[in-house]
Amino acid sequence: MRNIAVYPGSFDPITNGHVDIIQRGLKVFDKMIVAVLENPEKSPLFTTKERIEMIHQVFTEEKNIKVKAFHGLLVDFAKKNRARIVIRGLRAISDFEYEFQMALMNRKLNPEIETFFMMPNVSYTYLSSKLVKEIFMLGGCLKDLVPKFVEKKIREKFKKEKNRLNL
Ligand code: PNS
């Protein structure tokens, strides 16, 4: 039986920390499904389609990755995709409480599914999509935080939003 792992998240947008976790996961699992949460209530900066396209663009050469949108319960998505493993990145102790709660709740919902935590390279332990957007908005440098083309997408998106809002 192939070990299929689901790596879920908002990916709004994908950061170098996410890329690092996916690359590590690929060394351990046969196939990875990157599951992009459709979360209109969170008002993401990028649409689900844009978030999926950006992840595809990073891993164009990689055959063992699928990128899919999901909504509803993560454990249901995992089961439907014949995955028994959920991967989550653990950056710092501050992540732990939320991740612990989610992992145990997912286990309660479906005891067949195991959560695996992976630590990114230490240089990404302070990185998040939220901070990336904030840094960009405040004129900071995104070098080493997101892939180069993602930085360009962020720039385009904010420009579009500014025009739309007539700012
Ligand atoms: O990148 P994020 O926003 O931290 O990812 C959170 C995510 C998508 C993993 C989480 O919100 C999730 O699994 N949502 C699906 C709904 C669900 O299954 N909820 C019960 C989890 S205990």
The total strand number stands at: 5
Any idea what the radius of gyration is? 16 Å
pLDDT under 50 segments (min length 5)?
none
Distinct ligand kinds: 4'-phosphopantetheine
Mean pLDDT: 94
Strands side by side in the biggest sheet: 3-2-1-4-5
Structural class: alpha/beta
Secondary-structure element pattern, one letter each: EHEHEHEHEHH
What proportion of the residues form beta strands (DSSP E)? 15-25%
Please bin the fraction of helical residues: 40-55%
Helix count? Answer: 6
The biggest sheet, with number of strands, parallel, antiparallel or mixed sense and barrel status, is: 5 strands, parallel
First-residue to last-residue Cα separation:
55 Å
Q: What is the 3D form? A: globular
Considering the chains and any ligands shown, give keywords for the structure.
five-stranded parallel β-sheet; globular
Layout of strands and helices, then pairs:
Layout: E1 4-9, H1 16-28, E2 31-37, H2 48-58, E3 65-70, H3 74-80, E4 85-89, H4 93-109, E5 114-118, H5 129-137, H6 148-164
Provide structural commentary.
This protein has 6 helices and 5 strands, in the order βαβαβαβαβαα. It is an alpha/beta fold. A 5-stranded parallel sheet has the order 3-2-1-4-5, sandwiched between helices. The longest helix has 17 residues, at 93-109. It is globular. It binds 4'-phosphopantetheine. Residues 8-10, 37, 73-74, 102, 105-106 line the site of 4'-phosphopantetheine (PNS). The site of 4'-phosphopantetheine (PNS) has 9 residues, from β1 and α4.
